[in-house]
């Protein structure tokens, strides 16, 4: 009785080794660091390194070391003040060709890193940084979308000679929370013709049509189906996610967390940085797009060579050759609602563009006048550029326009047109992506923001760790006194449990937050429950006069069901918290869930193995479990 | 070491009317306090701006509040607490909370706050818009309801609906009392306290389930005895475990309360109250309610087949 086969012991030893190894990196701590990565993907040249070292020396910023890594040059600093100051100077020194990101460099030794062991990620409350919560104004987007459809519907009706009295966009009311397009007809025949025309057109399959009749006017009301609204909203939020990611990369944060939260919210975590104003400015600046006509009357090569650009033109480079564009903007990016890749009428990859807004009619006119002439798509990025002026870092905004496509106008363009003749699917995809990122973006507003100073983060870690240590120590002492040897085994199991939680969170790449630490502390209290249940049961069996070996067996057997039942309720609650909670609450929930699961392993499996190892395979008179029971009767 | 040298034989069921009175008093007091004082909702739920600041020199709280009111923050709430710095020294830190100011942008508001508190070092700054608060509130209430329903379904499946019902009723105590205490002492009720509230719901059920588990076992093992006697026996048998576990969890939560820092203070407090009330309710309330709902041996017999393999 009470023997484990060898493989179980081997499994336990393997688990412990795994736990200790992968939890270990967390003991070494981290240094504030700056990561310099050339955008070209090559290594930082020694030239640049010398320049950076000179700048740091000039500004009296001390650094610990500078090491070339596959991910770029990593410079470690003593504290975050030095790190933040150095980032600005280094960015100004290396210019726009390199990204200069704030980072926390783990002090994990090489042999551990070779095993893939990394410390846990720390949440903003533990390392300092900025958190934004943005909400996308999807109402504005839906309105814009319907406005463009309204124009297309009216054109379609006119083309087919269906006469209508008026067509308007009715704003949202209780019946149609997203508003509807209302078309009024003078008689029923026209209305029915119009209705069958619109509802049979696949371009309007997102709409549901309703008819009504009032004061000798016949109406068709079109409103977006719920499914279409959800799809459009999703698209809008994901577009914003992409743009935000691009923006945030410019901020120089090594591990930004940008994720959708709920239906139309985006949460942005920027660890390490402190300057909210700058972060907001950069995040708020979106790239823009414009369509301009190519000047075919003047020779771009002459303009490029002589440096004399004709009046009203600007000189650009496209695919290695000079191009002259007329300054007049035919269509702005904000009028573009969507761009998707399709297969064009000629069978080659193409991009289908949807436009809306007041500019479209003018766009239609200009393109109609210039059929057969080339038109360019210009992508304009605004970047913050840093310079060192008189030893101080100054920041200016600069625009970087770039031609991304030149195509010939085949006919007058309106709300929906195609850019055809693209070389490959890849080129089409890329163009659509750029068109979208410079297109009309659903406006987002920060509805919540939080800044946490780095020192507060450090203080939080210290306090949390101390609470964990003291709690664990007190419980351990008490268990030892109350259950003697069995208590000691439970204590080892508790410690192992904390090690396992930390190891699993490190491997999963989960983020540790202050509530997460609270959850670890709480699991210490909850994990001990399993052992108390088992030990109390063993004691009870002993008191009933059952032999020690049988008591151990019965104790584990009987307590197991109870332990599972009791833990499941906490698991249910933790899962609900995880599903409904955000940020810190989720951190708490995930840690609690991991802790409960690992505690089942350590409190049942591990302690049983240890007890079997000590008491198994032999005659036992007494168990060191804190009570004295006369065993003479049972051991006959 | 043992709590009870001999088998404890406390007549819990005889005291059930006393327990019912205590429960009723707790419940009514909490509800009255909630109606009277309301809850001091934290920034998470109300929206607004909150800053944690420290000063080089000591600052009088009232003076600081006056400065803020003069600067136009009429609803400013200033709280002081001891913050342990990295060097190990404790220092007074101040939590300053102002309401929503629609006319100001976040940056303007921050500048205005800094100007109103000369010499302040801002350690953290948090702004929560009005919509967020509403949503968090709805989600919070939804989470509490779901937690109740979810755990009840589990108990009803594993045990019996009478158990589920009485566990739920016994459980209502715990969050209500926590809310009552937070309302009476005007403590801040924020998102993390709500998390604690939910954790208490899960945790407090542990104790109840352990008792119910024993009740089920005893009903099958012991053929004689009224339901009241079986209930008493089961509670007594599990008593030392209940005290031990609750005591140890209380120990770690107290450690969290004392050393875990300001941010988890309220969390630990809510957990402390929850553990104490949860233990009381699972000993005194959950069992007698199940009896009151008419639990008898026959209710648990069909389930016998499931556990027959147990030795």
Task: Walk me through this protein's architecture.
The complex is a heterodimer of chains A (about 625) and B (about 300). With about 625 residues, chain A is of the alpha+beta class. Chain A is built from 17 helices and 22 strands. Chain A has helices spanning about 5-25, 25-30, 45-60, 80-95, 110-115, 125, 140-160, 190-200, 225-250, 275-285, 300-305, 360-370, 425-440, 455-510, 515-545, 550-580, 585-615; strands spanning about 30-40, 65-70, 70-75, 100-105, 120, 130-135, 165-170, 180-185, 205-215, 215-225, 255-260, 265-270, 290-295, 315-320, 320-330, 335-345, 350-355, 375-390, 390-410, 415-420, 445-450, 510. In chain A, the strands form six sheets. In chain A, strands 14-15-13-18-19 form a five-stranded antiparallel beta sheet. In chain A, strand 11 (about 255-260) and strand 12 form a beta hairpin. Chain B is built from ten helices and six strands; from the N terminus they run αβαβαββαβααβαααα. Chain B has helices spanning about 15-35, 45, 60-70, 105-115, 130-160, 160-185, 190-220, 225-260, 265-290, 295-300, and strands at about 40, 50-55, 75-85, 90-100, 120-130, 190. In chain B, the strands form two sheets. Chain B has a four-stranded antiparallel beta sheet with strand order 3-4-2-5. In chain B, strands 1-6 form a two-stranded parallel sheet. The longest helix of chain B has about 35 residues, at about 225-260. Chains A and B meet through helix 10, strand 21, helix 14, helix 15 and helix 16 of A and helix 4, strand 5, helix 5, helix 7 and helix 8 of B.
Give short descriptive properties of this protein.
heterodimer; A: 636 residues; alpha+beta; Alpha-Beta Plaits; Gyrase A, domain 2; 4 domains; five-stranded antiparallel sheet; four-stranded antiparallel sheet; 49% helix; 26% strand; flat; B: 311 residues; 10 helices; elongated
């Amino acid at each position: 009785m009470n023997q484990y086969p060898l493989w179980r012991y081997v499994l336990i030893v393997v688990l412990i080794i795994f736990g200790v190894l992968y939890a270990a990196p967390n003991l070494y701590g981290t240094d504030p660091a700056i990561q310099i990565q050339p955008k070209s993907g090559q290594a930082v040249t020694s030239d640049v390194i010398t320049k950076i070292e000179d700048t740091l020396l000039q500004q009296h910023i001390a650094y610990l070391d500078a090491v070339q890594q596959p991910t770029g040059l990593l410079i470690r600093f003593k504290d975050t003040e030095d790190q933040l100051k150095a980032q600005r100077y280094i960015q100004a020194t290396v210019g726009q060709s390199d990204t200069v990101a704030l980072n926390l460099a783990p002090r994990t030794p090489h042999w551990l890193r070779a095993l893939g062991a990394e410390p846990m990620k720390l949440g903003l409350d533990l390392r300092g940084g900025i958190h934004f919560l943005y909400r996308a104004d999807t109402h504005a987007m839906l309105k814009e979308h319907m406005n463009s459809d309204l124009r297309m519907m009216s054109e379609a009706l006119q083309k087919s000679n269906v006469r209508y009295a008026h067509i308007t966009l009715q704003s949202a009311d209780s019946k149609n929370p997203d508003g509807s397009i209302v078309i009024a007809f003078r008689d029923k025949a026209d209305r029915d013709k119009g209705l069958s025309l619109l509802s049979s057109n696949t371009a309007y399959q997102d709409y549901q049509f309703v008819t009504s009749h009032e004061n000798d006017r016949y109406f068709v009301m079109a409103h977006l189906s719920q499914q279409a609204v959800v799809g459009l909203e999703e698209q809008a939020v994901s577009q914003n996610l992409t743009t935000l990611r691009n923006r945030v990369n410019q901020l120089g944060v090594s591990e930004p967390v940008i994720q959708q939260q709920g239906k139309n919210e985006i949460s942005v975590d920027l660890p390490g940085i402190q300057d909210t104003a700058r972060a907001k400015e950069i995040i708020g600046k979106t790239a823009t797009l414009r369509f301009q006509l190519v000047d075919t009357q003047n020779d771009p090569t002459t303009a490029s060579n002589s440096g004399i650009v004709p009046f009203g033109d600007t000189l650009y480079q496209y695919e290695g050759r000079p191009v002259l564009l007329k300054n007049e903007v035919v269509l702005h990016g904000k009028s573009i609602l969507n761009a998707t890749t399709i297969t064009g009428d000629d069978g080659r990859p193409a991009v289908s563009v949807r436009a809306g807004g007041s500019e479209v009619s003018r766009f239609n006119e200009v393109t109609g006048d210039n059929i057969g002439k080339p038109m360019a798509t210009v992508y304009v990025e605004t970047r913050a550029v840093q310079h060192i002026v008189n030893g101080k870092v100054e920041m200016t905004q600069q625009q970087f326009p770039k031609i991304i496509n030149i195509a010939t106008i085949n006919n007058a363009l309106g709300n929906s047109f195609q850019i055809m003749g693209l070389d490959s699917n890849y080129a089409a995809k890329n163009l659509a992506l750029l068109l979208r990122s410079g297109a009309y973006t659903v406006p987002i507003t920060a509805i919540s923001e939080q800044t946490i100073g780095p020192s507060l983060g450090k203080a939080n870690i210290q306090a949390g760790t101390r609470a964990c240590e003291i709690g664990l120590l007190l419980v351990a002492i008490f268990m030892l006194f109350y259950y003697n040897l069995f208590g000691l085994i439970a204590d080892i199991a508790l410690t192992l449990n904390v090690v396992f939680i930390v190891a699993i969170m490190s491997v999963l790449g989960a983020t540790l937050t202050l509530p997460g630490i609270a959850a670890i502390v709480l699991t210490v209290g909850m994990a001990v429950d399993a052992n108390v249940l088992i030990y109390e049961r063993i004691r009870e069996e002993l008191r009933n006069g059952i032999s020690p070996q049988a008591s151990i067996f019965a104790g584990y057997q009987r307590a197991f069901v109870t332990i599972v039942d009791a833990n499941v309720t906490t698991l249910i609650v933790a899962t609900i918290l995880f599903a409904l909670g955000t940020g810190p609450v989720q951190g708490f929930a995930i840690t609690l869930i991991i802790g409960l699961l690992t505690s089942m392993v350590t409190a049942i499996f591990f302690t049983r193995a240890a007890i079997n190892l000590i008491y198994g395979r032999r005659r036992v008179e007494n168990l060191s479990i804190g009570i004295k029971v006369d065993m003479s009767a049972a051991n006959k | 070491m043992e709590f009870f040298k001999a088998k404890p034989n406390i007549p819990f069921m005889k005291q059930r009317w006393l327990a019912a009175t205590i429960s009723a008093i707790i419940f009514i007091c909490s509800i009255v306090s909630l109606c009277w004082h309301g809850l001091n909702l934290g920034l998470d739920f109300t929206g607004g701006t909150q800053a944690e600041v420290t000063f080089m020199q000591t600052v009088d709280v009232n003076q600081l509040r006056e400065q803020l009111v003069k600067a136009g923050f009429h609803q400013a709430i200033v709280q002081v607490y001891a913050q342990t710095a990295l060097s190990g020294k404790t220092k007074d830190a101040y939590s300053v909370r102002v309401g929503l100011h629609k006319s100001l942008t976040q940056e303007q508001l921050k500048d205005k706050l800094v100007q109103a508190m000369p010499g302040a070092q801002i350690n953290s700054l948090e702004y929560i818009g009005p919509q967020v608060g509403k949503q968090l509130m709805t989600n919070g209430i939804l989470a509490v309801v779901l937690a109740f329903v979810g755990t009840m379904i589990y108990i009803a499946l594993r045990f019996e609906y009478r158990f589920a019902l009485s566990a739920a009723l016994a459980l209502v105590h715990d969050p209500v009392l926590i809310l009552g205490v937070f309302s009476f002492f005007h403590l801040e009720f924020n998102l993390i306290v709500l998390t604690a509230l939910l954790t208490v719901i899960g945790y407090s059920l542990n104790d109840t389930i352990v008792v119910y588990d024993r009740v089920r076992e005893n009903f099958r093992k012991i053929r004689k005895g009224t339901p009241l006697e079986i209930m008493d026996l089961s509670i007594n048998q599990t008593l030392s475990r209940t005290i031990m576990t609750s005591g140890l969890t209380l120990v770690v939560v107290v450690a969290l309360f004392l050393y875990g820092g300001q941010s988890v203070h309220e969390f630990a407090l809510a957990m402390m109250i929850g553990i104490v009330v949860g233990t009381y309710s699972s000993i005194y309330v959950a069992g007698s309610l199940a009896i009151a709902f008419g639990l008898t041996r026959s209710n648990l017999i069909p389930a016998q087949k499931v556990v027959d393999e147990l030795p």
